[in-house]
Amino acid sequence: MSALKALDRPIKLGIITDLHQDIMHDGPARLKVFLDAMADEKPDALLQLGDFAYPTKDNEVVTQAFQQAHPRTLHVLGNHEIDGGHTFDEVAKLWGMKGRYYTENVNGLNLIVLDGNEKAADHTSGYPSHMGQEQLEWLATQLKTLSGPIIVFSHQPLAGPSSIDNAKAVQKLLNSTADKVLLAVNGHTHIDEVVRVDNISYLHINSASYKWVGGSYRNQSYPAGIHSKFRWIEYTCPYRDSLFTTLTIDPATGQIDVQGRESEWVGKSPSQLGIEAKPNLVDGKQICPKIRSRQIHQG
């Protein structure tokens, strides 16, 4: 029997990722749309999957709004959380996390939250994207000892585009307990995609705010006054509306339902800016201002 069937009732998780409060001019408004929707949806927990907001006093408007919106709010550490000068341990403490990686049981559903920001032995520059041996051993123990169904959350992907350095090692662990692992979920890539590796599905949740395009494709999508105050927006193709989703894990149907939400580009799309498509990153497919509705089955 699928581990999902062990649940007594459907479990609903409200998820937002990559808000990037410190890049966008309208981060609080985007978060409010999500929180207002979740007040109606009444999920069992809220999760933000990283690149949320620097843990500064100026950003308490968003961090406190998130924390106060639900009795159970969970954080995942993104790579940009330390851009404001904090360490990951400091961010975890300021946000009230159990640790940089941890487990949480939500009415019989086990959530394993991982930290993909550790440094590999050969790391030299850039944002680290790795899980060290200590964390892998901890993960192996959790997968072995947790009895109920499991969903794994991380900021960086564990499979597909931009996956962590040692993704195959994590995939091997998850696949070894595929009878219990329902799904792995990530942010970071700002795309809408699901990747299948062996017996596990890996769901990429799109950003709440934009697709990053970089300095070679700077563009003015908003009025000049906004760009003058928020200089990094021109490095993006923003979404007009906030994107987020709910996952409903239903033992009756034996599937996980991903709730879709669509928006549109503010200004030009990446392809209209001349960015060439890649085999696994195509404008209009993975690169899009939407989160598609999906039904995902275990195994």
Keywords:
20% helix, 16 strands, single chain, Purple Acid Phosphatase, chain A, domain 2, globular, 6-stranded mixed beta sheet, 299 residues
Brief synopsis:
By secondary structure, the protein is of the alpha/beta class. Helices cover 20% and strands 23% of the residues. It has one domain (3-282, 293-297): Metallo-dependent phosphatases (Purple Acid Phosphatase, chain A, domain 2, 4-Layer Sandwich), CATH 3.60.21.10.
Notes on the protein architecture:
- A hairpin with a 2-residue loop joins β4 and β5.
- α1 (27-41) runs parallel beside α2 (60-68) and α4 (133-145) packs parallel to α5 (167-176).
- The chain has helices at residues 27-41, 60-68, 88-94, 133-145, 167-176, 224-229, and strands spanning 11-16, 45-48, 73-75, 102-106, 109-113, 150-154, 181-186, 193-197, 200-204, 210-212, 236-238, 245-250, 255-258, 261-262, 290-291, 294-297.
- It has one domain: Metallo-dependent phosphatases (Purple Acid Phosphatase, chain A, domain 2, 4-Layer Sandwich), CATH 3.60.21.
- The protein is built from six helices and 16 strands.
- The longest helix is centred in the first third of the chain and has 15 residues, at 27-41.
- The chain is globular, with a radius of gyration of 18 Å.
- How many domains in all? 1
Share of helix among residues? 10-25%
Uncertain spans, ≥5 residues at pLDDT below 50? none
Beginning-to-end CA distance, first to last residue: 11 Å
Number of strands: 16
- In CATH, the homologous superfamily goes by the name Metallo-dependent phosphatases
CATH class assignment: Alpha Beta
CATH fold-type name: Purple Acid Phosphatase, chain A, domain 2
Supply Rg: 18 Å
Strand order of the largest sheet: 3-2-1-12-13-16
Number of helices: 6
